[in-house]
Structure formats: structure tokens, C-alpha cells
Amino acid sequence: MTNRIKSAFTDSPLRDLGDRASTSLLAMLGVSLLIVGALDLYGSDYVTTIAIGITTYAALGLGLNIVMGYAGLLDMGYAAFFAIGAYASAICGIHFQLNFFLSIPIAVVVTGIAGIIIGYPTLRLRPDYLAIVTIGFGELIRTVANNWDYVGASRGLYPLPIPSIGGYQFMTPIQQALLAFLLLGVAVVFCNRLGRSHIGRAWRAIRSDDIVPESLGLPTLRLKIGAYIAGGAMGALAGAIFAARSVAVDPTNFTLLLSVQIIMVVVLGGLGSTSGVLIAAVIFVGLPEWLREFQDYRLLLFSVAVIALVEFRPQGMIPERVATRIPKAGARAARDTEKVDVGRLTVKEPAAAAVDGAPLLEVRGVTKKFSGLTALEDVSMTLTAGRIVGIIGPNGAGKTTLVNAITGVHHATSGTVLLDGVDVTAMIAHRVARRGVSRSFQTARLIDQLTVLDNVLVADYARSNLGLRHALLSPRAIRRYDAAAAARALTVLERVGIDQLAEICPPELSYADRRRVEVARALMMSPRLLILDEPAAGMNPAEKKELVVLLRAIAAEGVAIALIEHDMPLVTSVAEDVVVLDQGRVIATGDPHEVLALPQVIEAYLGAPTALEGGTRHGAAQR
Amino acid sequence: MDTFIQVVLTGFTIGSFYALVALGYTMVYGIVRLINFAHGDLVMVGAFFGWALLQLDWIEGMPMLPRLIVAGAGAVVGTSLLALVLLRTLYTRLIGRSTLGFMLVTLSVAFALEEIVKLIFGAQQKYYPPNDLSSETIDIGGVAVNGMDLVVIGLAGTLMVGMIWFAHRTITGTAMRALAVDHDAARLMGINVSFLIAAAFVIGASLAAITGILSGTYYGRVSFDMGFALGLKAFTAAVIGGIGNIGGAVLGGLTIGLLEAFVQGYLAGAWSDAVIFGALILVLYIRPSGILGERVAERA
Amino acid sequence: MNSNRAVRLGALGLAVSTSLLGLAACGSDDAGGGSGAIKVGVLAPMSGSVSADGEDMVRASKLVVEKVNADGGIDGRKIELVVADDACEAQQGTQAAQKLVTDKVVAVVGGFCSSAALPASEVFHRNGDLPFVASVSSNPKLTDAKYPGITRYIGRDDQEAPVTADYVADLLASKKVAIMNDNTEYSRAVAKSLKENIEKKGTVEIVYDDAIQPGQNDYRAALGRVARDGADTLVYTGFYPEFGILAKQWAQLKPGYRLVGGASSIDATVLTAAPDAVTLPDLSIISYPTASLIQNPQADEFRTEYKAKYDADPGQFGIFQHDAMQGLVAALKADPKKLDAKDLIKRLRDVSFEGITGDISFDDQGDRNAFPFLAVRSVDGKFAPAYSYSPDSGWAATN
Q1: Which residue of B has its CA nearest to C245?
Q2: pLDDT of A336 higher than 50
Q3: Three-state DSSP class for residue A162
């Protein structure tokens, strides 16, 4: 095929079709058919029934894996989704004589609505509240099912119509296995795609905390609700299949114990690991069947196994592997010529820097109080595109609080923050970030489970306009996006001098290199305003020099930089202006050399063990 | 028989049990900001420690009260030791590192404890020896008051007042409250965090063990699965009252107890668990910080 | 391109599987015929919370089978028991049933928990109505499905209700009745049916109909409400662990109404849990004729043999398994040459004999024609029958 034909093909709707019925999906369905074929040839109905039991746990495990493995949310009432799916499908069959396959989308939609009702208020709160609320939710659903006559109350619904498609009935164990394995195969593919997409990467980023992802422009609440609902949808699917093949649903099928068992399957397999979950489901259902004596000790042994794994091998039996690959030389070349093919994805470039003169950032009389304690009082400052301002002051002066107030982590009690003339005072952090503000943190906060490259790629989430649709249906679009973004990430890493570390995970990095990753991550967002919180901490003099060069180069491109630093020589050498904070108030602003000579500034620093000049500690030594 | 007062009395008794467990929850949560799912099962462990001690020969001859006190002391010591061992071997390395990991481990510990007790003592309910106080019923103005009602409410009340005093009037208690407000600041102020965590676990475990013994004596029966649901409702109580707040735990416990009694006595007992968890979801919608709690940091 | 390979692989799999599925539909089963031991399945909960009852069922089955085998078996062929654990749960029940089908047993005797027995019965039905002799599962749905393969030796939950209604309305002459269930399927079903049966009488008013939540421990608020609603009798249709504590609190409150426990409220532990309550004349419990209560020569023989072989007293429900196994043996012996499902299920329905649990014969749905009940009270620290019920003469005091 010549390149021309190839590209014509890649751009046609035909390609899209090929993409949707992709190789992985066909392969997975093939595997499903082979398993069912093998069961039919070599297995008895008994073995087949166990295999179907495994598919139920596997499907539930895959669904919960999205919630708990990818997004790190503890859902203790996952059985509720299973129940809603099973009941919704059963109601469709019994009360509306609807075909089983038509009832599946209904079950999924109903579950999604329930997920929003429960997820929205809860996920705004502390992450562990979700655990307790979901337990409550699970019990609530079970109690309703147990007392509501429409769904048969405690008797349940029975017997359900046998699923059939075009007259073919899924009735015998092997036929049911065919149905269960085919649907599981589809589920495996979609879960994998989701996990490997940019959304999956974003979920992994919100696993440990909210503040960093928000600062990178990730809408954490939406991502969490998305994970919760996506997981719920899988649960609903599993529920519908379960109902169809048991020919009955009743409230005893959906207990807290089931939710806990699914949690065990996911943890045993490995949080975030699709293959791990599948194998764990086989063990969880199969082992007690194989060793009948084991049955009585099942819960105890699996509990102990979970404890041991979390303590000593938190990644589970089969750790997840999600590192984005470094693009091959061809893509690198493309990157060098700035002709990265980004396909139909349009990258949202922040608007070009404002014309010289008009300030990019304007902080006007910002005050921030924490339960009576005033952390910032009437702070004002401005910052123009292309300039570097140093924000200095002793420990506890309110520097980080000021950054938090600007970036939307905290909202000012009074006063306003204007970004390019737009009031961002009360704006949510990720929206502020999307307006071109990026920051690093005082203590480098990287995502330990992701490679350096993926850490940087997370920051690109806001720029991609790929959605859930692409993640599920167009793996090729995701791959192309990944390749392009990875190429760009490598450029950024190269710029801070650590492109050779792209495939390493943060725990193996030196302190200075962690700082550099943070800077790279901030740069990946192509910011208009870059706020760096002590970027030089832990760097040696040579590295500091490189940093100075880098900062100047970035500023020269029209980016405004706010630099929080204790290293005064660094500040004086790179900053055009400084703002000095003490006890939440601005005590001086202006040219670095002049300001640092002011008596009130020296006074403020006398208490702090930080050097004003030359890195010595004379201020502290005098006391 | 005056049903209303009877229902209130019942509510206060049930609520006292919830409050005692909620106190343990709220103290640990206040410090480590993590849900200890195994806390409810410490009630069960305490109840079984007590039951096993009451079966011993040398204790059997004693009169009921000293017998209970000896068994209770043994249960408190045993349960506290268990909590300490669990803390040191399993929890410490997860605290501050992995919220999900901590919750998963405590959840598994809860189930492991239940399964172990089931293996040792069997799945059948065990019965505490009958005592005079719980069989004697006095009629006060048409309300049947059981001697044990007074003991439970009295003892629970004393412990609650004691805990509030402890939190506000002792150095350890004040340090715990400081830690609950700001972890980093408290650490900087030289507070020994790991000591306080251990102290909170031991106090929580002791309260749980006392709850277990009281429940066994009062209701007469204990079983391996008595703890988890109790723990969940107690945690709900702590959240409703305002997590991390000692007074809130008491208030939340009594609220849940009264709610449960009123649903049973006036509405529909079939729905009582649903009502309680529904109330929790409602409280989190309207006032996420609970009745007495400070604002929970809302983000996003 | 590798997608082509995948497509081909998938197509191959599809082809293989569909052809196999076609074959599977024509698969034959030749259970029963031939020589060698006759395999009989036992479906019982061998693990989980009621595993003691499962063990009891297996023991009772063995007593019958060993006697038959010692006497020369069925037309010279020995009976071999195949035990399958249903763990009292739907999923395990389905798997256990599949196992028995795969093992080609001629019939299955057992079923303790309805939650496992119902899905198992579905499996048996789909496998050519493999004979299922249900021993202890009392859920009406089991025989209401009208599968020809099922005969049941214990009473139905909805038999308990009319008998209890007679007890409350006729024998106790109650005027205002409260009905309390424990929110389980069984308990609610009995409560519902009891309400209908009492209402049919026209002389009794239902003043309270609600559930308690097992595990909550304190039911005084509910007991107080029953008193406020003016009931003269409270019927509890749930299981014995909560009945024990309910009875205890009822005795403490002295609310002035009778307490009647349903057929699942009886257990020796109630005597321990509520020692003050069980001695009160206002407390009685409806009961199936269980092992410790039944008084007839067969029962005495069973208790003696059981004690001799296992050095333990039989559980409460093993006698139903014992009678069910004897019924199967009778059906097998009736025509030992024809053991296929089609013939055997007819003979199982025609069985008629006097078992431990009374006169045994079946209606066209596979349920017992007449099923006796008892009402018990505590006498000298043990439960003993105070009244007995027979379908012909209704309730009468026992001597």
C-alpha cells in the first residue's frame, strides 16, 4: 500500500468502522468462543456451571476495578449496582415482556442514574465517606427490594423469561456459558480500553490525592463520578446476565458480603489489573469448588490473603501495566519538525499572551481566613506576561496560601484574583488550570505508580478533546493521541534535561529530578502563568544554573512566572520583581536588590533560618 | 403501659451502645482520618472474651457483680492488646500512606476476626449466664424499667462524660483534639503522634470491649457476627454527630438509637435499617460535617 | 494484518462451538439402566451456617441405605450415595445440582434451604425431570412450579399458616392478633398467608403487621407498639435466634398479650435465651413434628439407631430425610428394572406408607396429603407437645 492510499484509508469512515470492530475485540470474542468450545468438548455441565459462576465474579470484579482499581474509590455497596441491573432486567422481562437483550441497555441506564444520585453528593466529600455511604446504599437497595411488592418483595421475581435472540434460546448450561463468555469478552475489551486511555491515566492520577490533579486541569469530581458510574454500568450488565441465567432474582443475592467478596477479588488480582481480576475470579470461585474442605475456611483465607497482599504486595498478584510507550524514532522525527499528526483531535491552545503592558495576573486585596486564623491579609500584586516575579518571605508567611488562592485550591475570603481580566477568585482549581495557570508544589507531588512520561502526560488531559466515546470505541484515535502527546512530553522532558528518565517511576528519582518532573509537568500544559514553589530545593549549584537558564527561556516565550524560593541568590539572579510576604501581609515589592536591603524585610527574615545574601546564615547566627 | 416513654427508654439504651462504639470510631478517625472497619468487631471480640471468662470454673462461684467486673476487666485488657497488636503489625505502616490500603486491611481484619471466632466458638449464638438485674423489672409510671437499663445508661453516661472530660481537660485529650484539627501543626508542636494513635486505639478498644460485655449481659446473647453491623451504625452515628467530635459521637449514637426505636415503635420496623442509612445520606447532602462537626473540606 | 488472523481465529471458534452446541442438544442420558450400584444424590448444606443440619441429613440417609444394602439392595444392586454440598445458597445450589446430574444419579433426595433447593430443582427439571425427593425445603414455590419430578416430605410454609390461624382463632380464641415477621422470605410468606387465613375467619382483627430487623437486639419498642395496638396475641413467624430474645423482652415487659412462635421459632436454645419466658403459660410455639417431639415406635427406633451409630442425638430435621429416603427406596423396589426418570417419578408420587413423620401420601402436585403439626410449651426444661393438629380433627390437647 502506498502511503497515499493508506492515508486516504485512515481518514475515511471505513477506517473508523474497522477501528470499532477492532482486532482486540474480535480476538477476545474468539477466545471466549474457544473457551466455550473447550467446555463443551471436555467439560461437564457441572464444570460449565462453575465457569459461568466465574464469569459473574469476573464481570463484577472488572466493574469494581474501574471504581477501586483505576480511580481508587472504595465502593462497599457494589452489590447494589448488581442488584439494580438484575432487577431492572427482570422487571423488563416479567412486567413488560421485553427481550433480554433489549433490557440490558435499560438496566445500564437505570444504574447510571442511581450512580449519579448517590455519587454526586458523596464524592464531593472525603474519599472515605464514599465507603460508608455505599454500604448504606447497598443496604437501602436490598431493603427496598425486600419490601416492595412490585419486585416480588422477599420472594423476588421468578421465573424470568429465558434469553433468546432470533429464536435461539440460551437455556442449557453450555448455551448460557456462550452468552456469559461472549459478554464477558466484550467487557474485558472495553475495560482494558478504558484503563489504557487518557481517561484511565487521569483516574490513576486522582487515586492518591485531588489537589495535584486539579492543578493539572483534571476535573476530579467528574472523573470520580465517571468512574463510579462506569463501574456501576458493568455491575448492571453482570446483574442482568446473572438474573437471566438463574431465572430468578431475590434480595438474598445482593448482600454486603457479596460486595466484600468482589473487593477481595479485585485486591487479590491487583488493583487496576484486568488480567489479575480475571485470574482472581477463577481462583475465588474455582478453588473452593476444587477443594470442598476449603469451603469453611474460604472467607478467612481470602481475608488473610488480602491483608498479606495489601501489606506486602499492594500491587496484587498481577500488577497493572499501563506505561505509555515512548514513541518510535519516526514519531520523534515528526516531533522535531513540529508536524505531529494529531488527526482530528484539536488541541486547545491557551490564548496567546496578552499584549505587553496589561497585567496577566492581578491579585487585589486578597484576604484568606481559616477558622478565625488569618493566613493572608489584603494581599495585592500583579504579574505581566514574560516577566518573572519572586515571592519570598519566611516560613509561614503565607506564600503557599497565596498560590493556593490564585490557583483555586482555596478560595479567598475577600478580595479578587483576575487572570487576564477574568475573575477567577471563586473558580474551581481545574478551571483555573485550564485558563493557563500551572504550578509545582513545595513538596514534589508526583504519582508514584506512573512513569515519568505518564506523569507528564497526565497534564495533557485538559488539552485533549477526546472523550469517553473515543476511549471506548476508537482505540486508534487514543493511540494516535498518545503518540503525539508522548512526543511532546519528551520534548518538554528534554527541555528540563531528563528525557532519558522517561520510563522510570518517581520513587527511583533523586530529589532534584523529582522537582524537574514537576516543572516538566507544569510546562506540558503550555501555561501562560507558571507558578513554581521552591523548584530549586535539593539542586546543586550546577543544576541551579541550568534552572535559571530554563526559567529565562520560558519567560522569553511570553510566559509569566511566579517563583517562590528561599534561595536568595537564585531569586535575585532571575526575578525582575519580588513580593515579600510576612505574616500574611505584603511588606515590600519592587526590584530584588533594593527590596532585600529594606529594614523591614531584613527584620522579617531575622527569625527565619534562611540566608539573604550569599547563602550564609548570618541572620540566624546573630541570635 | 406508656408506649412513648417506653420507646424513649429503649432508644436511649440502644443509643448508649451505639454512642460507646461511636466514641472509639471518632477518636481514631479524628487522629488518623481513616475508617477502621474492624472497630465494630472489637465489640464482638470483647463480648467473647467476657463470655469465655464467665465460663471459667474459678469465677463461677462468685456473685454476679464481681464476676462481671472480673470478666469485664479481662475483656478490656484482651481487646486492647489485640487492638495494639493489630495497630503495630498491620495498621501503622499504612497510616498516612494509603487510605484505600488501610480500609481494605481493616475490612479484611473484621472478616478474619469473625471467621476465627466462628471457628473457635462455633456459629451458634452463645448465651451469657442470667443475672438478677436483667430479669428484675420495675414498673415506674406504667413503664417497665429493667435494672440493667439503668446500669447501661448510667455506665454509658459516665463513660461519655469521662471521655468529654478527658478530651478537654487532660493534656493527652487536648493533644488528640489538636491533632484532629491540624496534623502537621500538631507534629511541629512536638506532639508524639504515634503515642496518641496508640492511645486512641486502646481507649477505643476498651470502650468496644465494655460495650460487648454490656451487650452480652443485657441482651443475654452474643454471636460471631454481632459486631460488623453495630460498627457500621456506630460509624454512621459518628458521622451524623460530626466525625472527630467527642460530644458529636454521643449525640449521634443517641440519635440513631432513638431513630431505631421510633421506627420500630411507630412506623415500620421492616424499614429501620433503610431509615438509618437514608438519614445518613440525607445528612451528608444537607450538612456534610454532621450536627456538631466543623466543616468538612469540600473540594472540586 | 493481524486483524485478519483474529477474524479467522474467531470464525473458527464460532464454527467449532456452534457445531458443538448443536451436538449438545442431542446429547443422550442413560441414567439408571444397566447394572452396578444405583447412584442416589443427596443435596444438603455441608458448609455454611447450617452445615450441622446438612450432616444430620447425610447421617439419616446412610441409616436407611445401609439397612437396604445389608438386606440385599434393590434387586441385588446396592445403593451408592453421592453427596453434593449446596451451601444453603443459590449459586452453590445450582453447581451442586449440576454435579449430581453429571454423576448420573437416578434420583436426588434432600434440600434444606429453599434458596438452594429452588435453583437446584430448576436444574433437575431441565435435565429431563430428574426425580427430586425434597425432604426439608418447605417453600411453596418448589412444588407450585408443578414439575412432575418433585415430591416433598415436609409441609409447606403455607400449610403452617392456616394451621396457626386455627390455633390462634379457634383454640386460643383470640380477637385481636398482631403478626410479626423477621423480614426473611420465609417469614414474610408465612406472615402474609397467616394474615389472609385469619381474615377469612371473620372473627379476628389484625391490629399489627410488621417486621423486625434480626440482629438489632432490642425489640421492646415493637413489643410496646403491639400492646398499644391492643392485641391479645402476638404471632412471630421468624426464626428462633430472634424469637429467644423477643420472648425474653416480652417477659420483661409483661405486656399482657400471648406470644405464639411459628414453626421456625422452636429450638433448644430458646430455653437458654429466655428461661423466664418459656415457663409462662402465655407462651407457646407451633412446631413441625420434629425428631425430639414426635412420639411413635418408628421415631423411637430411629433415635436409638442414630444414637448407636453416631453417638449423638439426631438433629431436628433428619427424620424428613429419613422418610424421604425410605420413600425413594419403596419406589425403586416397586419396579427395579425401570429406573429411568419418566417411570420413577410416577412411582414416587404413588408411594404410600407410615413414616416417622406420619402417614405419607401425595397430592397431584407432589405435596403431602395430610401433614401434622404440634403446639409446644416448656415442661421441666424441655419442649413438649401441648396440642396436636391433624387435618381431619383440627387442634386437640395431647394427653
Answers
A1: B219
A2: no
A3: coil
- Nearest-Cα distance to chain B for C209, in Å, is 9
Residue C119 to residue A247, Cβ atoms within 8 A: yes
B88 contacts on A by Cβ (under 8 Å): none
B293 occurs within a structural domain: no
Residue labelled with grid coordinates 429411568: C340
Q: What is the 3-state secondary structure (H, E, C) of A387-429?
A: CEEEEECCCCCCHHHHHHHHHCCCCCCEEEEEECCEECCCCCH
> Counting beta carbons within 10 angstroms of the beta carbon of residue A380, is it exposed (0 to 12), middle (13 to 18) or buried (19 or more)?
middle
CATH number for the region A359-448+526-621 comes to 3.40.50.300
Which grid cell is B135? 430479669
| Domain-embedded: residue B198 | yes
CA gap A261, A301 in Å, rounded: 12
Domains, chain C, in order of start with CATH, read 38-155+295-360 (3.40.50.2300), 158-287+373-397 (3.40.50.2300)
Which residues is C177 bridged to in the sheet?
Answer: C206, C233
Reported as a single tens digit per residue, the pLDDT across C255-279 is 889 999 998 898 888 888 888 888 8
Interface probe for C, chosen from B148, B264, B271 (most Cβ of C below 10 Å), is B264
CB within 8 Å: B269 and C222: yes
CA distance, residue C14 to nearest chain A CA (Å): 6
Rounded CA-CA distance A535/A523 in Å is: 13
> What span, in angstroms and rounded, lies between the C-alpha atoms of C123 and A192?
35
Q: How far is B199 from chain A (nearest CA, A)?
A: 23
Q: Which of A300, A409, A434, A449 to mutate to test the interface with B (most CBs of B within 10 A)?
A: A300
Return residue ranges of chain A for CATH 3.40.50.300. 359-448+526-621
Residues A235/A30, Cβ–Cβ less than 8 Å: no
pLDDT at A5 over 70: no
Query: Which of B105, B115, B277 lies closest to A140 in CB terms?
Result: B277
Do residues A141 and A237 lie in contact, with contact meaning Cβ atoms separated by under 8 Å?
A: no
By the 10 Å C-beta count (0-12 exposed, 13-18 middle, 19+ buried), C151 is classed as buried
Residue B109 with chain A: CB contacts under 8 Å: 303, 307
Q: Are B84 and B16 in contact (CB under 8 A)?
A: no
Other CB atoms within 10 A of residue C322 CB? 30
Taking only the tens place, the pLDDT of each residue in C44-58 is 998 777 888 899 999
CB-nearest partner of B269 from C213, C215, C248? C213
C-alpha A283, offset from chain centre: 29
Q: Which among A62, A36, A66 is positioned nearest to A51, based on CA atoms?
A: A36
Cross-chain CB nearest to B272 (options C213, C269, C275): C213
The residue segments making up the domain with residue B54 are 3-286
Task: Say which CATH number the domain at B262 has.
Answer: 1.10.3470
Residues of C whose CB is below 8 A from B123: 49
What is the Cα Rg of chain A in Å? 28
Q: A60-64, A334-338, A373-377, C201-205: which has the minimum mean pLDDT?
A: A334-338
Tell me if B28 sits within 8 A of B39, measured CB to CB: yes
Element (H, E) at A67: none
Where does the pLDDT of residue A238 fall: very low under 50, low under 70, confident under 90, or very high at 90 and above? very high
- What is the crossing angle of helices A45-64 and A78-96, to 10°? 120
Between chains, do C24 and A41 touch, taking CB under 8 Å as contact? no
Cell 518517581 -> residue: A506
State how far Cα A37 lies from the chain centre: 38
- Chain B contact for A90, CB < 8 A? no
How many structural domains is chain B composed of? 1
Chain B residue with Cα closest to A310:
B101
CA-derived radius of gyration, chain B: 19
Is this complex's ipTM strictly greater than 0.95? no
